[in-house]
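SUBJECT: A protein chain and its fold
Encoding: whole-number codes for local backbone shapes
Chain under study, with its fold:
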Amino acid sequence: MAMPTTMNISLSDDLKSFVDERVKSRGYSTHSEYVRDLVRRDEQEAGRERLRALLTEGLASGPGPDWTTQRERLRQRALGAQGGKA
């Protein structure tokens, strides 16, 4: 696990009050725990966005080879990896 790094942030009084309330109402033990949870959730969302982009790209790329062609390519690769032995 990486060593923790300190990061200071500035909040308006309204945002500070909001964070205080969230920490209390959601059972976080510290403000840092709350912020780390928010960052982790954002990181997960970024991963989902990346996956959606990759899926969209794949769908836009058109159809791949038919199964018979793909199976033969895979078979040839497997035979090549075995030194040509069947």
Observations:
- The first helix runs from residue 13 to 25.
- The radius of gyration is 25 Å.
- Residues 28-81 form one domain.
- Residues 61 and 68 are 20 Å apart (CA to CA).
